[in-house]
């Protein structure tokens, strides 16, 4: 028990610093996820299903907008979302020095 | 050269390629057998994931399903692509950092319990087997339609090929054959699609052709809406399914995709966490190429059928109709004897029946493309079925050798474990082949439910295992079991209630669906059940031990993933 305590106190500053840092990293990660998933939900369940009727009143070329989101637009958005995520996480990893070589 | 010769040549060439790759990339260790040694580049893994993912159903049937259901078919398009966002953001990076070989590995370690591991193995086996039986059947069907051999002979040839490279090569062999298979299948899908798009709309990009005008200057989709409504069908761009059901099915398919073990395991094969994220992105690009083309192929196909067959004289139909009538995939029956083909929504007067598979299978002939393109489409369909079957068989063999044998015999030598992995892969091939030859009548229906089951079992416990350190083994086991039982129960009641439980047709009719949710969509409710039960049970039972909580902190940080894989 004593030993355990000792090892924790061994390097108190870096230890708690590091913990704080990881907490901040995780928080920023979660925020990124929330924003991206909100968009994910909006284009598919929102535009493609729940709001499909009102959006279908808008036409772009030969596409009714709601239909386009359901069969095309949501898929393009999904691809973009993943690449934005990749970019943002690589940024975060470097910022918090947890990136890999 | 005629179609059959071209088909033999192209299918033969593609098989030679797969076998060559398999021989070149034999697995020498369990690590290579399970995860290709963890050294696959993100781009190659993305391609392999796409081939692994897109099955015979995606390649052959999906366009046809959309053609006949219009807007309702969007559930498959959104559901089978949106899951990759969940996979990339919520699962792949963390599971890669965790750094072991299988999904049950993660469940077992995270929930510090062999019971949880065994429940996970059973889920994985159940999902993979229902899915693989459908694939072997798909292989047989492609063989029989194009090579004019018996379906069963087709299944057996397919078995031999898969046997060869899955048993020999393990994940390593499968990965590189899947890269080749992706190239074959996407080329085979795009060539006819591009030509049909040019013919109908003058636009070489099918995705844009879908929104373009046809010969008489009206927009294709408007024209379809009008013609289909006239014939008594629902308009193409508006659906028949209820909004709640659309929502539930899309969600179940998305979450199910993210919970399918043969897809998740692909992200164990890349070197670093950032590669796992990136390869999910590549995978979705490669999938999106086919998935955004499919709705175009669908609309072109149904337009062609209505325009060139419906209302035409019976003895002056296009050549492709005559050719495919032999296979019964399209049948014309001049019921009222007026010599004209009537296509209507009323089964009593309708004279044209079209199988959904024909939209892709006959597409080269509809576009009047040369014979070699037909052979190419055959090779593409085969590639799609074989790559998915191989990925599933690997999950099955890994589940047996790694998650069952090794859990109870931890001191096994690596050589022995590899042997057991190979034997179980062989056993799985034979069993899958058996189901391919003797398909249980409900295979087609069951495949769709594999998603519901994956959604209701794996997805919640993996997500919560990563994003909460409070969820414990009691919660996870209770969650998985209740999600699975609920979903299975609902599906059994409404799908097999009449045959298995002796219920009346009224009792199982769609009027009695809860909130109008079909059995296909119930996995999303099963997922919620799993989440709630898991959370509540965890709350009233003790927190996980400290070392597990430390592990959770550890998998949230990318650095060190390369090392983690080496033990």
Summarize the topology.
The complex is a heterodimer of chains A (101) and B (567).
Chain A: H1 2-9, H2 12-50, H3 52-56, E1 59-60, E2 63-64, H4 65-95
Antiparallel strand pairs in A: 1-2
Helix pairs in contact in A: 2-4
Chain B: H1 3-24, H2 30-35, H3 42-53, H4 56-69, H5 74-98, H6 103-110, H7 114-147, H8 151-201, H9 206-209, H10 220-230, H11 243-259, H12 261-264, H13 273-308, H14 319-325, E1 330-332, E2 352-354, H15 358-361, H16 363-366, H17 371-408, H18 414-437, H19 443-467, H20 473-501, H21 523-539, H22 546-555, H23 561-564
Antiparallel strand pairs in B: 1-2
Helix pairs in contact in B: 1-8, 1-17, 3-8, 3-13, 3-17, 4-13, 4-17, 5-11, 5-13, 6-7, 7-8, 7-17, 7-18, 7-19, 7-20, 8-13, 8-17, 8-18, 10-13, 11-19, 11-21, 17-18, 19-20, 19-21, 20-21
Describe it for me?
Chain A is mainly alpha-helical and 101 residues long. Chain A has one domain (22-95). Chain A is 82% helix and 4% strand. Chain A has 4 helices and 2 strands; from the N terminus they run αααββα. Chain A has helices at 2-9, 12-50, 52-56, 65-95; strands spanning 59-60, 63-64. Chain A has a two-stranded antiparallel sheet. In chain A, a hairpin with a 2-residue loop joins strand 1 and strand 2 (63-64). In chain A, helix 2 (12-50) packs antiparallel against helix 4. The longest helix of chain A has 39 residues, at 12-50. Chain A starts with a helix and ends in a 6-residue tail after the last helix. The relative contact order of chain A is 0.11. The model of chain A is unreliable at 1-12 (pLDDT under 50). With 567 residues, chain B is mainly alpha-helical. Chain B has one domain (3-67, 89-237, 246-564): Sodium/glucose cotransporter (Up-down Bundle). Chain B is 72% helix and 1% strand. In chain B, strands 1-2 form a two-stranded antiparallel sheet. The longest helix of chain B is centred in the first third of the chain and has 51 residues, at 151-201. The radius of gyration of chain B is 24 Å and the shape is globular. The termini of chain B are far apart. The interface between A and B is large, with 41 and 53 residues.
């Amino acid at each position: 028990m004593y030993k355990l305590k000792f090892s924790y106190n061994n390097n108190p500053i870096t230890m708690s610093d590091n913990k704080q840092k990881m907490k901040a990293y995780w928080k920023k990660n979660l925020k990124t996820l929330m924003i991206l998933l909100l968009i994910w939900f909006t284009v598919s369940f929102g535009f493609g299903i729940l709001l499909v009727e009102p959006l279908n009143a808008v036409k772009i070329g030969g596409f009714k907008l709601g239909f386009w989101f359901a069969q095309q637009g949501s898929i393009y958005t999904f691809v973009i979302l993943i690449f934005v995520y990749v970019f943002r996480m690589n940024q975060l990893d470097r910022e918090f020095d947890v990136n890999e070589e | 050269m005629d179609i059959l010769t071209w088909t033999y040549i192209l299918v033969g060439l593609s098989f030679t390629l797969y076998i060559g790759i398999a021989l070149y990339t034999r697995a020498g260790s369990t690590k290579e057998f399970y995860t290709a040694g963890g050294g696959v580049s993100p781009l190659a893994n993305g391609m392999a994931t796409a081939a692994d993912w897109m099955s015979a159903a995606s390649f052959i049937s999906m366009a046809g399903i959309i053609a006949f259901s219009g807007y309702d078919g969007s559930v498959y398009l959104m559901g089978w692509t949106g899951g990759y966002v969940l996979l990339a953001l919520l699962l792949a990076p963390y599971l890669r950092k965790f750094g072991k070989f299988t999904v049950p590995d993660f469940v077992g370690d995270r929930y510090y319990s062999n019971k949880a591991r065994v429940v996970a193995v059973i889920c994985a086996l159940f999902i993979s087997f229902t899915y693989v039986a459908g694939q072997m059947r798909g292989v047989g069907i492609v063989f029989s339609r194009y090579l004019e051999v018996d379906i069963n002979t087709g299944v057996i040839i397919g078995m031999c090929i898969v046997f060869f490279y899955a048993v020999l090569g393990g994940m390593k062999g499968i990965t590189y054959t899947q890269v080749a298979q992706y190239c074959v299948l996407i080329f085979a899908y795009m060539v006819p699609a591009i030509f049909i798009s040019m013919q109908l709309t003058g636009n070489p990009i099918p995705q844009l052709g879908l929104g373009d005008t046809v010969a008489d200057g009206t927009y294709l989709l408007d024209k379809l809406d009008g013609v289909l409504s006239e014939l008594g069908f629902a308009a193409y761009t508006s659906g028949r399914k209820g909004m709640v059901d659309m929502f539930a099915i899309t969600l179940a398919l998305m979450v199910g995709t993210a919970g399918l073990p043969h897809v998740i395991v692909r992200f164990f094969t890349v070197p670093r966490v950032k590669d796992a994220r990136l390869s999910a992105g590549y995978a979705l690009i490669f999938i999106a190429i086919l998935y955004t083309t499919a709705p175009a192929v669908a609309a072109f196909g149904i337009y062609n059928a209505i325009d060139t067959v419906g209302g035409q004289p019976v003895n002056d139909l296009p050549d492709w109709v005559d050719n495919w009538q032999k296979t019964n995939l399209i049948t014309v029956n001049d019921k009222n004897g007026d010599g004209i083909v009537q296509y209507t929504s009323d089964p009593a007067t309708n004279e044209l029946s079209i199988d959904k598979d024909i939209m892709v299978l006959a597409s080269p002939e509809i576009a009047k493309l040369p014979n070699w393109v037909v052979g190419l489409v055959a090779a593409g369909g085969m590639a799609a079925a074989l790559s998915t079957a191989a990925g599933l068989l690997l999950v099955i063999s890994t589940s047996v050798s790694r998650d069952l044998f090794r859990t109870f015999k931890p001191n096994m030598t690596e050589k022995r474990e590899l042997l057991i992995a190979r034997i179980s892969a062989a056993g799985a091939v034979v069993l899958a082949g058996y189901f391919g030859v003797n398909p249980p009548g409900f295979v087609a229906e069951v495949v769709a439910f594999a998603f519901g089951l994956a959604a209701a079992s794996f997805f919640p416990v993996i997500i919560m295992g990563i994003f909460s350190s409070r969820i414990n083994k009691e919660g996870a086991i209770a969650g998985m079991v209740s999600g699975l039982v609920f979903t299975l129960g609902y599906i059994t009641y409404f799908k097999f209630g009449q045959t298995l439980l002796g219920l009346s047709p009224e009792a199982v009719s769609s009027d009695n669906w809860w909130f109008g949710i079909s059995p296909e969509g119930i996995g999303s409710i099963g997922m919620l059940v799993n989440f709630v039960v898991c959370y509540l049970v965890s709350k009233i039972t003790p927190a996980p031990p400290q070392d597990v909580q430390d592990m959770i902190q550890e998998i949230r940080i990318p650095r060190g993933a390369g090392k983690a894989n080496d033990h």
